[in-house]
Specification:
Chain A: It comes from Echinops telfairi. The complex is a heterodimer. Chain A is mainly alpha-helical. Chain A has eight helices and four strands; from the N terminus they run αβααβααβααβα. Chain B folds into three domains: 86-92 and 101-447, Metallo-dependent phosphatases (Purple Acid Phosphatase, chain A, domain 2, 4-Layer Sandwich); 465-541, Recoverin, domain 1; 544-635, EF-hand (Recoverin, domain 1), CATH 1.10.238. Helices cover 50% and strands 11% of the residues of chain B. Chain B is of the alpha/beta class. The chains are: A mainly alpha, B alpha/beta.
């Protein structure tokens, strides 16, 4: 994504952000009535290149929700809040080296890998725990079936390549 | 809420480990969300191209009306053609007439059916199809004939009951995907007196096994006429089948007998019931409703007069015009009035199109279905109004592919159910069916047919779907290359070969007429330089349209590529004996009509020249399938 270069902070930037936000929103607006299911708002925000934590996401949702939550988010409320997020460049993506260091913290013996059990334990018991579905999905790509472990350096570079 | 802060207060592992875990979780959630959005974008591409094609298909109806008028005023020979195309001779033959000349050879090792059919024939058929056997044309014709007889006795709307303790299973679009039907039967059991089913239209087209699905459904109908209910879908239409594959499937599988099968199939379609009502509460039909939907009228309409959505009734005014023209030319009055007595009234026809083609939307009211080009969009207010009017509680409809196989909207009053999993591409969507039980909320059962034994990662799944969506999109782009380049250049004042993202997205939207998130898709379609400028020619680098004849100009090539499917149907309609051949003369006539109607600006001489070149053996006829196949898009870097 080329956000960095669109950084002219002019009105055209705001207008362009509006269009991008609307585009991303519309794909989830199944009934074409400028609303989306609140459960999909995280996906929309993340698809716009932001990486909020679950906690930050909850706060953000609280900002855009109706006073009496309906389970749906209206574009009208979402658009100004999200534009601000993009303008202020909040929730920047996590760089590769930080990610690698995070894995290294969980591997104090510096073996270069985590066992499947270790990974599952950290991801489902610490921090903002994964649901079972999220865990299974992560494991399907992360675990080398022969050693039943995750070689995180290879894993990270594979994931980065995947995305580009 | 704010689980980050609660954890900070009461740490379980070491602070460092928690922070590390959070970074990984946070990163992974974003990664996975981005992939899921890409998957959604791919589905959006598939769907909007699908609807754009349907729109093209629906536009053919005005072309056929146009053709009818133009041919009607022309000479005798051409009028013959019109009658041949748009009128059916009533066929009151008995079964023997259909099958007597077609013997099943000793060597045939597929299923052998015995009339009157019983449940053992259903087993036999399913077993045979699981072994990829093809049912002999003799049986296909016999089943179609018997099914037509039974369907003719059925009312337009079937009324059924879940009471006392029967659950009814409702399945949506199957689209020739036999594995999905097998999976449903495996999970839910075969249809029987204790296990009734409603199949809500679109049994055929797109998938490879439409005839097998249709045969299983019709044989089951013959065995359990009170327990299997079929609703007509918008693809149970012989002109739709020409574009979407079923006609081709039949001709490939049945060659010599294909034409005969198609003929009777056309009639079977028209006799399919159009809706089912369960317990006087739940209305099941294929598409949806409109403001004017009148169930009483739909109950008494002569449904068999609806031959195809592409053949709208001719208005009486036009009839006058045609007749007066004919009189001038010393014509034969009365020919068109015969046609008229066989057609529905305009408002009856519209009622049927609406229930077969409409989609629910969140916006109130009822407005034309612009993306499909037929039926309407109906809002929650329309649903409430129509359901209340007839004391109904729920509408179950199909017609739209949903990622989860079903979707509930309009405050729970409308359920969409779609039973073809992997509809667009392996992994694109799940399929579902619904179980209805008296006084209980509907239950949904979801599934997905998989071929591979090892589970694929999210990335692999998304990549496959995205890849084929982008391919499709690029094929559409190359067919509009001239127009696209002209529009880009209008923005590119300095002739740098580059435009801004906004300009590019605007150009794409105005030329392609697809409602897509162009900004987000740009990364997959074009190269962007470090200043965020788009090199607009880069999307054409890896695709090109094959030129069968070197000298032809790109404008004609692009036009043929763009309208390929439309032309194929028009040629097929003229080619009533399904020989695959039309005369060079017919080709020229048709091209002229086509050109006028679609406002295509291409010099006749170019097309004449092309037609002569395509008549390879100089016998005055053109193999139009070969002709159109010649104009296909090539992906340069294909590894396959």
């Amino acid at each position: 994504m080329a956000e960095d270069k669109e950084w002219e902070s002019s009105e055209t930037t705001v207008a362009e952000f509006h269009k991008r936000i609307k585009e991303a929103f519309e794909v989830f607006d199944h009934e074409s009535n400028n609303t989306v299911d609140v459960r999909e708002i995280g996906t929309i925000i993340r698809s716009l290149g932001c990486c909020p934590s679950e906690g930050e996401l909850h706060d953000l949702i609280a900002d855009v929700e109706e006073e009496e939550p309906t389970g749906y988010i209206r574009l009208e409320k979402f658009l100004p809040v999200m534009t601000e997020v993009l303008l202020e460049r909040r929730y920047r993506p996590i760089p590769e080296d930080i990610l690698l260091r995070a894995f290294e913290v969980l591997d104090p013996a510096k073996r270069g890998f985590l066992t499947k059990e270790e990974l599952v334990k950290y991801m489902t018991e610490e921090g903002e725990p994964f649901s079972q579905e999220e865990m299974e999905e992560m494991l399907s790509a992360a675990i080398d079936p022969e050693s039943n472990s995750i070689h995180y350096k290879d894993y990270i570079s594979m994931m980065v390549v995947d995305e580009n | 809420m704010g689980c980050g802060s609660s954890i900070a207060k009461k740490p379980r592992g070491s602070d460092k480990a928690i922070r590390a875990a959070m970074i990984i979780q946070n990163w992974y959630r974003s990664y996975s969300a981005r992939l899921k959005v890409r998957q959604r974008y791919a589905l959006t591409i598939f769907q909007s191209i699908e609807y754009a094609n349907e729109q093209g298909q629906m536009q053919l109806s005005s072309f056929f009306t146009f053709m009818l008028e133009n041919y009607a005023k022309a000479n005798e020979k051409e009028r013959e053609l019109v009658t041949r195309i748009f009128r059916n001779d009533p066929q009151e033959k008995d079964r023997e007439d259909y099958v007597k000349m077609i013997n099943v050879p000793e060597s045939y090792n597929g299923p052998r059916l015995q009339f009157p059919l019983t449940f053992t024939d259903i087993d036999l058929l399913i077993e045979g199809f699981k072994q990829q056997k093809i049912l002999h044309a003799h049986y296909v014709l016999a089943v179609l004939f018997e099914a037509k007889k039974v369907l003719m006795q059925m009312p337009n709307v079937s009324h059924i009951k879940t009471f006392p303790s029967r659950e009814i299973t409702v399945c949506g679009d199957l689209h020739g995907k036999l594995d999905d039907l097998f999976l449903i039967f495996y999970k839910n059991g075969l249809p029987s007196e204790e296990n009734p089913y409603v199949f809500n239209g679109d049994f055929v087209d797109r998938g490879k096994n439409s005839i097998e699905i249709l045969m299983i459904l019709l044989v089951t109908l013959l065995v359990y006429p009170n327990d299997l209910h079929l609703n007509r879908g918008n693809h149970e239409d012989f002109l739709m089948n020409l574009r979407y594959g079923f006609t081709k499937e039949i001709m490939t599988k049945y060659k010599l007998y294909g034409g005969k099968i198609l003929k009777i199939l056309e009639e079977v379609y028209t006799w399919l019931p159009i809706a089912t009502v369960v317990d006087n509460e739940i209305l099941i039909l294929h598409g949806g409703l409109s403001e004017s939907t009148d169930l009483n009228l739909l109950h008494r309409i002569e449904r068999q007069k609806m031959k195809s959505v592409l053949i709208p009734p001719i208005s009486p005014d036009e009839e006058d015009m045609i007749d007066s023209r004919k009189n001038k030319g010393g014509g034969r009055k009365g020919r068109t009035s015969v046609i008229l007595s066989e057609q529905l009234l305009q408002h009856e026809w519209e009622q049927l199109v609406d229930i077969l083609w409409s989609d629910p939307r969140g916006k109130r009211g009822c407005y034309p279905n612009k993306s499909r080009g037929g039926g309407c969009y109906f809002g929650p207010d329309v649903t409430s109004k129509i359901l209340n009017k007839y004391h109904l509680k729920l509408l179950v409809r199909s017609h739209e592919c949903k990622p989860d196989g079903y979707e509930i909207c309009h405050d729970g009053k409308v359920i969409t159910v779609f039973s073809a999993s992997n509809y667009y591409e392996e992994g694109s969507n799940r399929g579902a069916y619904i179980k209805l039980r008296h006084c209980m909320a509907p239950r949904f059962i979801q599934y997905q047919v998989t071929k591979s034994t090892c589970p694929r990662t999210l990335y692999q799944r998304v990549n496959t779907i995205e890849g084929s969506a982008i391919r499709m999109l690029k094929e559409r782009m190359i067919a509009r290359k001239t127009d696209l380049v002209r529009t880009f250049e209008a923005h590119d004042h300095t002739k740098s070969g580059k435009v801004s993202l906004g300009q590019w997205a605007f150009s794409m939207e105005s030329v392609m007429e697809l409602n897509l998130p162009w900004r987000s898709l740009s990364a997959h379609l074009v190269n962007t330089d470090k200043d965020g400028k788009i090199n607009y020619m880069s999307s054409f680098e890896d695709v090109l349209i094959q030129k069968p004849v070197k000298e032809v100009q790109s404008s004609i090539i692009e036009t043929l590529c763009r309208y390929r499917s439309d032309l194929k149907i028009i040629f097929n309609v003229i080619d009533t004996d399904h020989s695959g051949l039309i005369s060079v003369e017919e080709f020229r006539d048709m091209w002229k009509l086509f050109k006028t109607h679609y406002s295509v600006h291409i010099d006749d001489s170019q097309v004449d020249e092309l037609a002569n070149k395509m008549d390879l053996n100089k016998d005055g006829s053109i193999d139009f399938n070969e002709f159109l196949k010649a104009f296909h898009v090539v992906h340069k870097f294909d590894t396959k």
